[in-house]
Design brief:
By secondary structure, the protein is α/β, with parallel strands linked by helices. The chain has one domain: Alpha-Beta Barrel (TIM Barrel). The protein is built from 13 helices and eight strands. The chain has an eight-stranded parallel beta barrel with strand order 1-2-3-4-5-6-7-8, surrounded by eight helices. It is globular, with a radius of gyration of 18 Å.
Length: about 270
């Protein structure tokens, strides 16, 4: 059994999986986020400050804590997807997918022939999964694509019905830009809400998982109740900034003290 199989087991049981997002190039920061009940950490190689050489030890740190390591690749390029999977990522989130052909290309980059075109060289993946056969290595990893444009929304059923695709992941900020709206999370504009709902509905019709990026655990709970299955509830950069600002505002008297999380020793 691979780590990614824990995600599929949860989805098959109708349960959402909550996770975190890593934008800082720090294995220790990723390790700290891998607390109990964090189902996955996605290492962001697209918009984060992380390159491939930094991502690999982050995968190691995440997996050592028993958490699934996913990664958002920089682009829908087969060599980028394959290289991250060979390094031990248990799945990929592929940005800017607007057509079925692009979705097919993303899936093919994750699977070995005859189901795809991934080149065989699982240098670390074989260590993580303790397997070397192409079927186990290729079929175990999860593949999500991001629909972020009007073109993608128009093609949503064609994308969602792509064979081998595990799910569609909503990046609310880029989706907002694609709709001509200001980029942000937890959008309230009716057009954005309708677009997110259309993605969720398409995932349901075609039996795949809907994922989404949220600004808080509260928002994550709400999306779970709507039916999303892969839900990111926090990002290292945002959490660090928010916590620092909050504590300083209390210390300087700018806001009244509130119940705080005990910081304790060195953790």
């Amino acid at each position: 059994m691979t780590m990614a199989s824990t995600l599929r087991a949860a989805w098959q049981a109708g349960k959402p999986v909550f996770g975190m997002w890593a934008a800082l190039p720090s294995p220790f920061a990723a390790e700290l986020m891998a607390s109990p009940n964090v189902g996955y950490i996605c290492v962001d190689q697209q918009h984060g400050l992380i390159d491939y050489a930094q991502a690999v030890p982050m995968f190691t740190a995440i997996e050592a804590r028993g958490t699934v390591a996913l990664t958002r690749v920089p682009a829908n390029q087969a060599w980028m997807i394959g290289k991250s999977l060979d390094a031990g990522a248990q799945g990929v989130v592929v940005p800017m997918v607007s057509t079925r052909e692009e979705a097919l290309n993303a899936v093919a980059a994750c699977r070995y022939p005859p189901h795809g075109n991934r080149s065989f060289g699982p240098i670390r993946a074989a260590v993580v999964s303790e397997k070397r056969d192409a079927d186990s290595l290729g079929n175990s990893v999860v593949c999500f694509v991001m629909v972020e444009t009007r073109e993608g929304l128009a093609n949503i059923d064609a994308i969602a019905s792509t064979p081998g695709l595990d799910g569609i992941y909503v990046g609310p900020a880029d989706l907002a830009l694609g709709l001509g709206l200001p980029p942000d999370l937890d959008k309230t504009e009716p057009e954005h809400i309708a677009a997110v709902q259309s993605i969720l509905d398409a995932c349901r019709r075609h039996g795949i998982v809907a994922g989404i990026q949220c600004a808080s655990g509260q928002a994550g709970r709400r999306y779970a109740e709507l039916g999303f299955g892969l839900i990111t509830v926090g990002k290292d950069t945002s959490l660090l900034q928010a916590a620092a600002r909050h504590e300083i505002r209390i210390a300087t008297g700018a806001i009244a003290p509130t119940a705080a999380v005990a910081q304790g020793g060195y953790t």
